[in-house]
Write a structure and sequence with these properties.
By secondary structure, this protein is an alpha/beta fold. Among the domains are: 2-83, 2-Layer Sandwich (Nucleotidyltransferase, domain 5); 234-330, no CATH class. It is built from ten helices and 20 strands.
């Protein structure tokens, strides 16, 4: 049996094919992503797109079992009703997964709509995004400010591992500095390992593994995520320093309402450990993985971030990155 996961968002269509190898639980995986134009507003249009790509695989729709999922649509696709991502996330507990697109904000710990309509300009922005939904977030300053103003709450996740996906985080045209800044608008108080689901593979995976019969007949593995950065966020004092080969290096001093970003130039870190302790970040130590882009310490308060409505926040983050602190040379 071949499987097809179909994930429909407000402006994208994600297809994930699992082609069964004969007499084996192994599968071949194919992933496709399509802009979701306003004209594609019913299941028949989506089915036409899906059929055209199945044809390229020299297969037909009858060769597949279909598993559709959506962030906002409830219609049927190939006679199968969409599941909602929000419902499936409630049944997942391994890490905090956040999906953030034009109109919804879902995670494994909370489900809510975004708080739009803060101003006339914001209303126009949302209206245009609806009518031209195939256009990507480009990550310019105006969009960054809008997104930050639209977020009226912050998370304090119960899990250390946090994975983010959606228009902004999965768009390769958006600079990592802007993605990093948006993460800081969403998450505070704690120590976290931040990952990105850059290809938005997890929703289709999550949908498929909830079918018990599939896990017995197919090898469906959780997708790998892009290792983004380590985050230490606290308004209160904290002790943070690195160790190399057991030797303590200089402690890191970050002033109130400031941020500091540190990276490594080593492809493989020579036994560098991060040691941290604080009432809001807990206590621990870990070997720093060089695949992560760096370590960011954020000592700004929620009130400080919102008083400046992201502009000052973004400036501080970018200034810190431009200082180009290399912890591997401490």
């Amino acid at each position: 049996m071949n499987l097809l996961g179909i994930f429909v968002t407000s402006n994208k269509l994600f297809l994930r094919f699992f082609l069964k190898k004969e007499n084996s639980t192994e599968t071949q995986n194919y992933n496709f992503e399509f802009p979701y134009y306003p004209s594609i507003n019913n299941p028949k249009d989506i089915e036409m797109v899906v059929r055209s790509y199945i044809k390229k695989l020299n297969l037909t729709i009858s060769d597949f079992k279909i598993f559709p999922m959506s962030t906002i649509y409830s219609f049927e696709v190939f006679g199968v009703k969409n599941k909602f991502l929000s419902n499936c996330l409630r049944n997942f507990d391994d890490f905090l997964y956040i999906y953030f697109d034009n109109f919804v904000f879902y995670s494994t710990e909370s489900v809510s709509g975004m708080s739009f309509g803060l101003s006339k300009r914001s209303d126009n922005f949302v209206s245009n995004r609806s009518h031209f939904s195939a256009q990507n977030f480009l990550g310019d300053l105006e969009e960054t400010l809008f997104l930050s103003k639209s977020i009226d709450f912050v998370y304090r996740p119960s899990k250390t591992k946090v994975v983010l996906a959606g228009d902004y985080f999965s768009n390769s045209k958006v600079q990592y500095e802007l993605k990093l800044n948006l993460v800081l608008e969403l998450i505070e108080k704690g120590f976290y390992e931040i990952y990105l689901d850059e290809e938005v593979l997890f929703p289709n995976y999550l949908n498929l593994i909830q079918e018990d019969t599939l896990t017995k007949t197919h090898e469906i593995k959780c997708p790998g995520f892009f290792k983004f950065f380590y985050l230490l966020s606290s308004e209160k004092d904290m002790d943070v320093f690195f160790k190399r080969s057991g030797q303590k290096l200089l402690p890191l001093e970050v002033k109130k309402n400031e941020v500091s970003f540190l990276h490594s130039t080593y492809e493989k870190n020579p036994s560098i450990q991060l040691i941290y302790k604080g009432s809001e970040i807990g206590k621990g130590q870990l070997d720093i993985e060089s695949e992560f882009k760096g370590v960011l310490i954020d000592k700004r308060s929620y009130k400080f971030k919102k008083d400046f409505l992201a502009l000052e926040s973004l400036r501080k983050v970018i200034d810190s990155i431009q200082k180009n602190y290399d912890y591997s040379s401490l």
